[in-house]
Amino acid sequence: MIEIKEVSKHYNGSHAPALAGFSLQVEQGDFLFLVGPSGAGKSTLIKLIFREQTPSAGAVLFDGKSIADFKQNELLNHRRRIGMVFQDYRLLKQKTVYENVAFALEVIGSSPKEIRQKVPAAIEKVGLKGKENSFPTELSGGEQQRVGIARAIVKEPLMILADEPTGNLDRENARQLMSLFEDINREGTTVIIATHAWDMVDQMQKRVIALENGRLVRDEQRGSYGREH
Ligand code: ADP
Ligand code: ADP
Fold first, then answer.
1. Would 170 be classed as within a structural domain?
2. How many domains, the chain?
3. Which residues does a 6 A CB cutoff place in the pocket of ligand 2?
4. Is the complex ipTM more than 0.95?
5. Mean pLDDT of the chain
């Protein structure tokens, strides 16, 4: 599904590369954790897959095609099939739960009928039925992140990319969120999560990709976070 081939990424004005000769293959339906110290390159990897950044060398292939070569409509299509989830949720404060989730479909041009069908289903799936008319500030952190996940899955993406999704949550909320990602993955969606939640990683026994200084240092099928917490 995704093939990252010998990718290096140098940001302007920074001496060390964020990624260096990094290669990785991800299959449809994979669930993988990206782990490693701050600055190891996890966010950069996520941004390269979404094509928010482009590699300085090497290539990111999606179904065999280099995403750097995507024309405008292919790029829109690419982003449509990826759901992004952020540490700070990035909800629209002026919009209700329902409107936040609906907005994700509006921007990709879904019909009102599609929106009426899909939004309640996504809200129900993340366990927020009854909160449709709440505003983000009326929700707990865990609930806000559930809205973030509903917004990502309502597009029925092939893949979810989550950067520290539980970084602002307590353990119980983190556990529930991870279990939600597992449910989504069970239905066939590829899930990639950059995280420092070592207890979750150790417990869940998913594929673990460990990065250090922009390099892949470990790729294990039923991996653990690693000794350094
Ligand atoms: P992680 O997500 O593992 O913390 P990042 O991908 O955010 O790692 O960062 C990798 C390296 O790239 C770090 O040294 C970071 O400071 C640098 N970096 C990230 N984004 C930028 C940027 N926009 N400009 C310059 N340097 C950056
Ligand atoms: P947590 O203990 O997980 O941080 P909160 O105590 O913030 O959760 O919220 C508990 C419940 O109360 C949640 O269902 C949330 O939606 C609701 N709630 C919190 N603040 C408000 C508010 N200002 N208006 C309406 N409902 C609220």
1. yes
2. 1
3. 134, 138-140, 142-143
4. no
5. 96
